[in-house]
Amino acid sequence: MYKNSQISRLSRRRFVATSVGVAAGLIGSGRLNAQTGSSATDGNHLAVGKGIFKSVKWGMIQVPGSVREKFDLMKTLGYDGMELVSPIGLDAAEVRAASEATGMPVHGVVDTKHWKIRLSDPDPKIREQGRGFLEQSLRESEAFGGNAVLLVPGKVTGDDETHDDVWSRSIAEIRKVLPLASRLGVRVLIENVWNGFCETPEQFRDYLDEMDSPWVGAYFDIGNVRKFSPSEDWIRTLGSHIVKVDVKDWGVKNGFCKIGDGDVNWLAVRKALHEIGFTGWSTAEVSGGDRERLADIFARMNRVLGATAK
Question: Domain with 88 in it: what CATH number?
Answer without folding.
Answer: 3.20.20.150
